[in-house]
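Next comes the chain:
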Amino acid sequence: DQAVTYDKSNPNALYNYYLVRDTLGLEGMEEYMAGQDSAIVREPGSVPGNTDRTLQFTDYEELVFLLDISGSMVMEKVPCMGSNRFDVMKQTALFVLDSLPPDIQIGLGTVDGDCGTEPHAWDTVGALSRYDMRYRLQFLPPNGTPPLLERLQASPELFSNDDQTRKSIFLISDGANVCRSDGENICAWADALAGRRITINILTFLDATERNTNAFAEYACLADNTGGAILYMDNYRCGYEYFGASLVESCQPRIPSLRKVSCWGAATKSLWAVETAP
């Protein structure tokens, strides 16, 4: 049940779900599937096929989109999509925006320019209507480098002062921090942020390889220290995958066929066994 809830399009999760429920004579999953919220369908190919995974980052009362619009987002391609990172990022942000419940308060900030410069967009939660937010996202211009830590340090000011609401920064980026604001450590800053009920969830277009170790180390501090998670763009699967994922995500296990056996004698009834090759 949990594996299907985690990713209801995962073929192995669905196979296991059907197998166990059918074997044990339990009800099917039609009602479950009918009860799922369906994201607004976008034009095929405009976003990765499993973009709905990003919606797990939006279960908050206040959500700030913090978008990296630096030059590298335009210069680098997402090969399997046939588009640059900037366009895929905008389409993904629009997908999330269109899928949000109307009562979620949204804000927008950009990671751009240079160390010490003003961001292109800096709108507090509730300042933009959904229409205005959509317009902003559609016409974001690429600009400069990613002063990540500076923007992150300032981003809490985009939330309300209500201590009771659950808040999240949804960071979409393709680079590591280039500015060491007053020498502050990004991990120490994130650790302090957790006490303010602000979670950082991250979607990155960087490959999860050894050449990006430093960037992912910083991402891990931001997410782990605030109770968030990290998605990265996997060009081999052409989709968003979890970084530091669970065993289910990494190994994709399939439960083998089950059957009742009597090899332990009549005293042991209804014994379930796994079928194996001779």
About this structure: The first helix runs from residue 2 to 6.
